[in-house]
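Project standup — Tuesday

K.O.: blocked on the structure for the chain from last sprint. Re-posting the sequence here as requested.
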Amino acid sequence: MNDYYGTNNLPLVLQAKDIQAILGISKGKTYELMNSAGFPTIFIGKRMVVPRDAFLDWLNDDKRKIKRRPIYV
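H.V.: unblocked you, prediction finished:
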């Protein structure tokens, strides 16, 4: 498992194992995410990769963030 300590240490092109390590999700969820419509996956034959800058843009996208409802006690 790779340890990433900032965006400068990320490879230019991310593979599934990189996405999995960065987000801390399972292998199955990683491939589910990479196959989803809003995720910036590039398909090269059967191989799936994600450009680093596109991944960071997706990660920082405000439209994707979860809107939390207030909890009333």
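K.O.: great, moving the ticket to review. The two ends are 42 Å apart (CA to CA). Residues 1-45 form one domain.
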